[in-house]
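Take a protein:
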Amino acid sequence: MKTPLIGAVAAVACALAGAATAQSRGDWVLSYYQGGAELYPATVESVSGSRVTLLWDDGTTSEVNRSDVRPYNWRVGTAISCKWTDGSFYPARIARMSSDGTTIDIVWTQDGSTARSNTGACYSAG
């Protein structure tokens, strides 16, 4: 009696897991870039089978595996890393997000100073 129930629960869990990564054109997402370990923000341009074409927030476009795409979940308080004026990335937290969502005010973790950035210059841990 328990075996069919366990199978049904597993089937529902698999279906829901697939739905969590299903994305449509125009969705704002996070994804791994070129096999890296960081998640960068992007917009879905198209979906074809297991591949997704993304327009990254920095303006570039590339194709990734659908399994590498995550729902966009950055909010005030989210820990991210952003590019500093020296071109290196440093840890920060989001302090405020503009209504368009792409302009963000951040607080640098190391010294508490603040800056205005955009999502195309930041990533989060994967």
The beta strands are 28-32, 38-48, 51-56, 61-65, 69-71, 79-83, 89-97, 103-108, 114-118, 122-125.
